[in-house]
Amino acid sequence: MKMRANVFKGANKIGLEDRPVPKAGSGEAVVKVTLTTICATDVHIMKAEYPVRVGQIIGHEPIGIVHELGEGVTGYKNGERVAINAITPCGQCGYCLSANWSQCGGFLGGWKMGNTIDGCQADYVKIPNAMANLTRIPDELSDEDVLFTTDIFSTGLSGAESANIQVGDTVAVFGQGPIGLSATAGAKLKGAALIITVDTIPARMKMSKQMGADITLDFKKVDPVKEIIKITNGRGVDVAIEAIGLQESFENCVKCTRVGGAISSLGVYPAQLGTIGIPLQDFGYGIADKRVVSTLCPGGKERMRRLIDLVKSERVNLRQLITHRFSLDEIEEAYRIFSNQLDGVIKVAIKP
User: Fold this and answer.
1) For the chain, which has fewer Cβ within 10 Å, the N-terminal or C-terminal residue?
2) How far apart are CA 155 and CA 175, in angstroms?
3) DSSP assignment of 153-195, as one string?
4) Predicted pLDDT of residue 272
5) Same domain as 301, residue 248
6) How many angstroms separate the first and last alpha carbons of the chain?
């Protein structure tokens, strides 16, 4: 039995191929994909800015229906609707038991789909550690309602969580792409009193307000650091979140954060960058009590349950981030639109 799958073929080369439908081994499940999306990380992979093997099926954000359960997977049945996070921890290793689920097994080990194993931009996907990672979707929620709980919302919210945003904090978020918009929603959920966002694309700045921003700054029209310092009466923000993956925006986060504040790094930096520099004076030469935290999307079915409950209780509307819809057969066009930020795109939905 064959399926369609989007495959990495080398720098700036992707495309559909016929592949065998995977079989569920012990502890695994095979899910028939009903909806997925494209992540900025997938774009980094397509451009060979993040290394995966040639021939890898890419994609890591699946919604679907249980197709096959492997030995030892209990409590689920074929035909059930499930969501699976991009991070699929085993739940048993030292990293998982220390609550570092995204680092399951070691360095970046929790991110398997589309990275170290075949991903979900396909008709079917095999899920490792299924007992820890299959999350049922309530009947009253659509696939589109919960699609972004699989990565960007978990990631954006975790950026706010890792920075330990407190009720009443002032927060700046640099970048209002999908991750940045989710970080904005996360800051609001965590109780920030003032949220300042930075971007330049009109559609994203408009969506930023809908996701919780109080003030949006266009970095092509103003110096965002000077404006943030002015808005905060010279104090700086309590937390600055970097959601792009650029040296300049990381430095701006350091510059606009108050002494004792936190810089939360969510962006994926290109491998070609080599190192990330810190402006020493703005960092207080290392003794201004500014802390830098980084985050990879937490996963596992308990995390997913909590995120889906936030959607169910209407604390956050993630469906509004979908601006474009494509079939799997149109995957190359979807990448063209998304990677080049054309036609006001924010997020795409891919339906096999």
Assistant:
1) N
2) 14
3) HHHHHHHHHHTT--TT-EEEEE--SHHHHHHHHHHHHTT-SEE
4) 76
5) no
6) 16
Helix (H, G, I), strand (E, B) or coil at 5: strand
Whether residues 17 and 138 fall in one domain: yes
Q: Could you tell me the residue range of the domain that residue 103 belongs to?
A: 2-151+297-351
**Under DSSP, is residue 326 helix (H, G, I), strand (E, B) or coil?**
strand
* Predicted confidence (pLDDT) per residue in 81-131, tens digit: 999 999 999 999 999 999 999 999 998 899 999 999 999 999 999 999 999
The amino acid at residue 92 is: Q
The closest alpha carbon to 190, from 160, 210, 163, belongs to 160
Look at the chain and report how many structural domains it folds into.
2
50 and 138 share one domain: yes
Alpha-carbon distance of 300 to 65, in angstroms, equals 17
Q: What is the mean pLDDT of the chain?
A: 96
Same domain membership, residue 146 and residue 162: no
Q: The pTM is what?
A: 0.94
Which tokens is 258 given?
């108050």
Looking at the fold, whether 146 and 167 belong to one and the same domain comes out as no
347 shares a domain with 333:
yes
What value does the CA radius of gyration of the chain take, rounded to a whole number of Å?
A: 20
| Domain end point (choices 250, 273, 294) | 294
Q: What is the DSSP string of 10-41?
A: ETTEEEEEEEEPP---TT-EEEEEEEB---HH
DSSP collapsed to 3 states, 213-262:
CCEEEECCCCCHHHHHHHHCCCCCEEEEEECCCCHHHHHHHHHHEEEEEE
Q: Are residues 56 and 14 both part of a single domain? A: yes
190 and 126 in a common domain: no
Rounded CA separation 165/238 (Å): 8
